[in-house]
C-alpha cells in the first residue's frame, strides 16, 4: 500500500509526532538537553496489511536551553496492529549536530555525586509553573524518563505529555551511574486523565540514560 | 540578553575569551576582570541580545564549548522584582495581572473593576455553582441609544487551566485601559458589547488551588459521594453523551447524568439562549495546545458557515503569530484534536450563533497546565 499525505495539523499526525519526540528525548535528552517540537513539517501514513499503521514524519526540533537553534529530523513510527501491549517501533534520524552538553552534564554529574544527602524534590514545576534553576537538570531528566514512558505506552488513541514531576528521589549507587526514582504525572489529552507513573532512570555523562527494568 | 557559562580548557582559549570580552565589552559576571580568566575555571559572561548569535558563532569557530546559563536575563530580573505594574495599578489599585489569583481575589477584582469603571462596566449574576458559589460575568458596554450585538467570552470551564481565567482578567484590563485612546477598541465598543465570565467552574478552580492542582471537572458528587465532578465541557446539549465522553463518574470526561445536568452548565446555557439573537460571537478559553478550534467535535461534517469560521480563525492565528512568533493551529476539533460531544462551543453553534470558537492557549505540552507565570504576559498580549 502507498503512503498518503496527511495534513500536519491532523490529530493522528500530531500523535505520531509526540511518540517520535518522546523516543528522541529518551535517546538524546539529558540533564543539559531538552528537545521540544517546534513544528511538524510533513506527515504521511501507510496502512500495512497484517502489520499496522506507519507514519513518516519530518520534524523541526528546538533545544529548550538554546531556542535560537533548531534541528531537523525525520522519523518513522509504526503502531502495531491491534496491539495494546507492544510499543510502537520508532526510528529517528537527526540531521546535523545537536549542541554539545558535555561540560554542563559533567558538572551536574559531579555536583550530584558529591551530595552528602540524597536529593529529594517534589512538584516540578510548582503550581505556578516555576522550576528553581538548580532543579532544571532534574526536570530535563524527567523529560528523558517520560519520553521513554510515552514511547512505550502510546497508541493511535492517546496523546501523552508530562504534566508534572510529582516526586523524585536520588538513590546512591555503588557503580558510576546516577539513579533517580521518579513519580511522574502523565496527562493524556484524549481521555484527559492525569495518572502517576513510577519510573527509575539511570544516567551517566558518557553512557547516557536508560530506564531500569525493575 | 543571555548569560553563558564557559570553562576554558587551554591558554589559547583563555586568550581568545579575554579578547572577546574586551572587543565586545561584554559584562563579566565571573570572574570580575578579564585578567582573572583561567583555564579550568568557571567563566560567566552576559551577552547583550543583539550580539548573542555572533558571540556563539565565534565560540564555535574556536571550538570553545559553552552552556546557556540564563536564556533570558530580563525575564529573571522581572521575576525576582516585586511587582511594580504601573498600568495595572492605575486600573484596579495594585492588581498583578501577571500572576495567578485564587478565587477570592478574583471576586474582589470584579468588584473593584466595576467600581473604578462604572461608566462602562456592570457586574451581573449568572447563577450558582454546585457548592453555592455565585457565578458573575462582567458586561462592558458603552452607553448608546442603538442596540448592540454581543461578544461573549468565558474562561475557566476546566479548573486546572489557570492561564484561562488569567487571560479573561487581562482582557478586561486591556479594554478598560485603552478604550479611550485606542481607535480600534473604541470603534469596537461603539458597535458591540463585551460579556466576560472570568471563572465558570468556580468550585473546581478553588479545588485546584486548595487540594489538587490538576483537577479538571466540577465538584458535584455522584454515586453517593464516591466520586466527584462532571466535565462541564461535555455536559452541553450538543450530541450529548455520544462520543469522546465517559458515563463513569470517576472519569475526567464524565459527561454528567444528562445534558445540562450541572448548575454551571445550566446557568450559561440559559443566559445564552435568552440572548441568542444578539450574540455574534462566542469564545471559550482553555489550555493547553495552542489551537483555535471550530465546530464540531462530534463529527467531521463541517458546519454550514465553515469557510467564514476558518477565515476568521486563520486571520486571528496570523495576528497572534505576529506578536511573538507563537504558532496556533486552526481547525475543527474532530480533525485536529479528538472526537468529543457536549462541548459549549458546539452547542452554541447549533442554536444559531454563527461564530463560535474554542481557544486552547499556551503551551504545547512542555509545561502544559502548569504554565509559568512569566508566560502570562506574552500569552495574553499575543491573544489580544
UniProtKB/TrEMBL annotation, chain A:
Gene3D superfamilies documented for this protein: 3.10.450.10
The keyword DNA damage belongs to this UniProt entry's keyword annotation: no
Q: Which UniProt keywords apply?
A: Protease inhibitor, Repeat
What InterPro entries is this protein classified in? CYSTATIN_LXN (IPR049897), Cystatin_sf (IPR046350), Latexin (IPR009684)
Cystatin LXN-type domain boundaries = 2-103, 120-214
Q: Is this entry keyworded Repeat?
A: yes
GO cellular component terms listed in the entry, alphabetical order: extracellular space
Recorded hits in SUPFAM superfamilies, A to Z, give: Cystatin/monellin
**UniProt-listed PROSITE patterns:** CYSTATIN_LXN
| An example molecular function term from Gene Ontology annotations | metalloendopeptidase inhibitor activity
Which family does the entry's similarity section mention? Belongs to the protease inhibitor I47 (latexin) family.
Query: Would you tell me the protein name for this molecule?
Result: LXN protein
Species per Swiss-Prot/TrEMBL record: Sylvia atricapilla
The record lists the lineage as: Eukaryota, Metazoa, Chordata, Craniata, Vertebrata
UniProtKB/TrEMBL annotation, chain B:
Q: Which residues form the Peptidase M14 domain?
A: 99-384
One of this protein's GO BP terms?
Answer: proteolysis
An example Gene Ontology molecular-function term:
zinc ion binding
Domain of life of the source: Eukaryota
GO CC annotations on file? apical plasma membrane; extracellular space; side of membrane
What does the sequence similarity comment in the record state about its family? Belongs to the peptidase M14 family.
* Family matches, as PROSITE patterns: CARBOXYPEPT_ZN_1, PEPTIDASE_M14
The UniProt entry's coiled-coil ranges are: none
- Which keywords appear in this protein's UniProt record, sorted alphabetically? Carboxypeptidase, Cell membrane, Disulfide bond, Glycoprotein, GPI-anchor, Hydrolase, Lipoprotein, Membrane, Metal-binding, Metalloprotease, Protease, Signal, Zinc
Describe its function: Carboxypeptidase which preferentially cleaves C-terminal acidic residues from peptides and proteins. Can also cleave C-terminal hydrophobic amino acids, with a preference for small residues over large residues.
What positions constitute the catalytic site? Answer: 360
The cofactors required by this protein are: Zn(2+)
Q: Name one Pfam family in it.
A: Propep_M14
Task: Tell me where it resides.
Answer: Apical cell membrane
Q: What is the lineage of its organism?
A: Eukaryota, Metazoa, Chordata, Craniata, Vertebrata
UniProt name for this protein: Carboxypeptidase O
Q: How does it sit in the membrane?
A: Lipid-anchor; GPI-anchor
